[in-house]
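dumping this here so i dont lose it
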């Protein structure tokens, strides 16, 4: 009986210790960020559009460049209620003193819209896949990273006005995050899903003329990510952080439409 009790206590202690090891340390940050975008859109066939653009993002209270990215994509409108499309984005991420190796992103979008009086409601579902070009441990970082982004948007058409205000809410689900293990050399690889971002935004579009558009916006962005670090030689779990980033994003976007 004593041996049984001792064994049970050891098992409980091991399980408790294991649970403690796999509990992340929570780190919270707050930041003010900026975005400046420019792009153009042109019709290349009936209901088929070509788009391209460039974007600069700022971080650390607008003091440093976060990234530069260029994009090109197409969209097709099979009906006035539905738009489908795909685009490619080249991402150059900046860290203090150097630029990281570029990343490649591909998006596939499906968006439905409906007009109710002066309101236009839309729901966009986007499958986002990001490929890294640097070498990573798949137990620490995803490559590629696959995210499902769901965005609900409401625009209001003001009578006899060039302004169109809007509200939006976006929810991101990371679909292939690596599961945390005690030792990646001994434990099997597996993935899990989790909600990685909530975004609430408000903005207003300005139609200058038939070709030129401006968009002013503010996003409150809650981004939850996990920083997993293993010992390279032994494979033991070294660090496990849950990073909660609270971002206030102010931006302006310009589009030339042919």
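and the seq i came up w/
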């Amino acid at each position: 009986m004593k041996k049984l009790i001792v064994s049970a206590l050891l098992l409980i202690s091991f399980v408790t210790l294991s649970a403690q090891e796999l509990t992340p340390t929570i780190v919270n940050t707050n930041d003010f960020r900026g975005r400046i975008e420019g792009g153009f859109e042109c019709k290349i066939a009936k209901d088929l559009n070509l788009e391209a653009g460039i974007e600069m993002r700022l971080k650390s209270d607008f003091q440093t460049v976060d990234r530069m990215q260029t994009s090109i994509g197409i969209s097709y409108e099979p009906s006035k209620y539905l738009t489908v499309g795909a685009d490619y984005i080249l991402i150059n991420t900046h860290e203090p003193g150097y630029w990281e190796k570029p990343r490649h992103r591909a998006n596939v979008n499906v968006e439905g819209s409906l007009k109710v009086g002066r309101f236009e409601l839309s729901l966009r579902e986007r499958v986002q896949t990001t490929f890294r070009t640097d070498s990573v441990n798949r137990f620490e970082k995803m490559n590629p990273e696959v995210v499902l982004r769901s965005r609900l948007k409401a625009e209001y058409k003001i009578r006899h006005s060039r302004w169109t205000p809007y509200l939006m809410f976006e929810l991101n689900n990371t679909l292939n995050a690596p599961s945390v293990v005690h030792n990646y050399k001994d434990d099997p690889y597996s993935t899990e899903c989790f909600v990685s971002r909530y975004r609430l935004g408000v903005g207003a579009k300005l139609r200058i003329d038939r070709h030129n558009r401006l968009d002013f916006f503010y996003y409150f962005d809650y981004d939850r990510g996990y920083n997993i670090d293993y010992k390279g030689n032994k494979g033991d779990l070294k660090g496990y952080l849950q990073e909660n980033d609270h971002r206030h994003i102010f931006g302006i976007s310009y589009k030339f439409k042919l």
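The domain at 28-257 is CATH 2.40.160 (Porin).
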